[in-house]
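Annex B.
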Amino acid sequence: MKTITQIVAVIIMVLLTAFAFAQNQQPWKGKFEQLGETLPTPNSYRTGSGAPGPNYWQQRADYEISAEVDDKTQVLTGSEKITYYNNAPEALNFLWLQLDQNVFAPNNMTDQTRTGVVKDSVPAGFLGYVSGITPSDYKGGYTIKSVRDATGKNLPYTINNTMMRVDLPAPMKTGDKFTFSVDWSYTEYDRQIFNGRGGYEFFPEDGNYVYTFAQWFPRMCVFDDYEGWQNKQFLGQGEFALTFGNYRVKITVPSDHIVGASGTLQNAKDVLTKEQLEKFEKAKKTFDTPVIIVSEDEAKQKEKTKSTKKSTWEFYAENVRDFAFAHSRKFIWDAMAVKVGDKTPLAQSLYPKEGNPLWGKESTKAIRNALEIYSERTIQYPYPVAYSVHTANQGMEYPMICFNGGRPNKDGTYSQQTLFSMVMVIVHEVGHNFFPMIVNSDERQWSWMDEGLNTFLEKETMRVRYPELAGTRGTPKGIVPYMKGEKSQMRPIMSMSDNIRQNEFGPNAYTKPSAALTLLRETVMGPELFDRAFKEYAERWAFKHPKPADFFRTMEDASAVDLDWFWRGWFFTTDNVDVDLSEVKWFRLKSEKSDPEKKDVKVKSGDLASGNGKGGGANDFSNGPQEFTLINTPEQLNGEFKSRVDDNAVRKKLEGKNIYQLKFKNVGGLVTPLVIEWTYKDGSKEIERIPAEIWRINESEITKVFVKEKEVVNIVVDPNAELADVEVKNNAFPKKTDSKFDQFKRNN
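M1 family metallopeptidase: predicted structure tokens.
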């Protein structure tokens, strides 16, 4: 029977819950409550374990493309045939294609919604970045010449900014395929003026171009179980959601140009000289050092002669989500084979003379290092080639090919920073083959699923293969300056890509997720559990379309570590880690001979709970320990047990021990494990690790007691900067005064 007090309490709880729902709010959720309804409900397509379900499906699109680039006008003219396969459990009445080049079309949505200011003395070349004004006569965007079915009949289509809907003559049922063609053209842009992912770079000294073609053809949107058509407009920042398929591509360029692309070259005998072909074949069997296929001297000669003839390069790529290519007569070309499991992909670099000697020394080696480390941590690299192409101030990725910056001075010298930046960007962009080119996440909505995971593995590759260059990028220590920023100006990691401030996009999508994963691996889970779970995620979702919940659930499913608190704090909030070691008390058991027959021994000097006495409230250990005594266990506490606790044995175990009571305050709001460094009077040190679950009852303040054999002289929380704690000043005891703090920071 309930008491009046219990009944009143129940009524109050019901009223509060009803009020919360009436305000369209969820009832209070603690930091350790399960994500529950925050994540989508599992179903037969995506299971509660984070794996693809028994009814998982995805669409497919195959392409046959012919394109020609005019080296004088920079116009690309193309024709494509797309075969689209409907594997969805529903009929389709229309198809959606992406027209990414329309981001440069007149009156595009990106320009219309760009904000900016007018500033005095702004460099003319940066006017567009500051104010959004681009004083250029360039007219971008696609010219769609025709959209036809397999019989040549025109298909109705509607262009909405960067999206094009093609209406089908009859519904596509499950299992149907539909073939249609699109003819188009557009003028490539100068990437020095327009901040695009492809474009060209012009070299005035020799009058030549390096072309990088990206988002250059109309591409199918993703249609999936999660939201149907993913046809969110391309505004420039949020990248791409794409469908897997096979590509056969013919690219016509001047005969003295070298072409690199997503896929394997099908007609090497037609486009290479006999000597180039021999070196090309030699490179496929060379593992120790790159083979020079086109030398710098050859490239310099072609820069002068400029052939007027044309050649068509043919490539084939299987099971890829996109296709990109680069070409120039300026290209030096080197290549070597890489052993990855039972495969030997060909690592290849294309670069103008302006990249040497740095590129000849480092580029292809960096490809190899990335392929090897990423393959160990995820899945074996499945593709036959991997290109790194050099052009200024760039870092962009596509299946089997990426475009990278990092240029030495004109005299060939370069700084350590240039070397680091160049190697780092190549590792990062080659690494994107795994995320999102293979583990095919939706970049338009969740940048962190490719950029964050990839930055984490880039950091790991640099740590393992380039320890002399590895820094703090993507680590908890490196993310502290960002995490210390104004929270009201931040967005959580779980924000759609285009809704993140441009100056915040790098930390939010790249380095904060990487720092979180580093913390997860090194401190929360441990390398063994983390690596196996991370690999499980890659294996489950290779060549599929994962969503955030699939990653979160897989990491828990494969490790038996409850991480809902971690995802909630790091990914769904803008909280930071700031643990204040607010109080330390030092105790020792009072030494005295206890009479086992006596029922009680009075407390002589305070107790652990009150903390009264010499040690209480001090800023250091100078007052010495506070003494306490233990009373015999009262008879009533034994309850129904017939045996009795040996009180003297308990006292004996604590004799001479140093007992420390530490109080921690969660100032930053982000719950965290505790890493405590104890320094003892004899100079020795000990690291103690406490799981984040210590905060589960009180998320704001906790007190914990530690028993130590030796006397402690110093205590530091997060001594190795692995927790991303934003304020080290409140992490130590004895308390450091302002005058000593700079020295403390240097020592720690």
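The first strand starts at residue 60 and ends at 69. The CA atoms of residues 160 and 298 lie 46 Å apart. Further annotation is deferred to the next reporting cycle.
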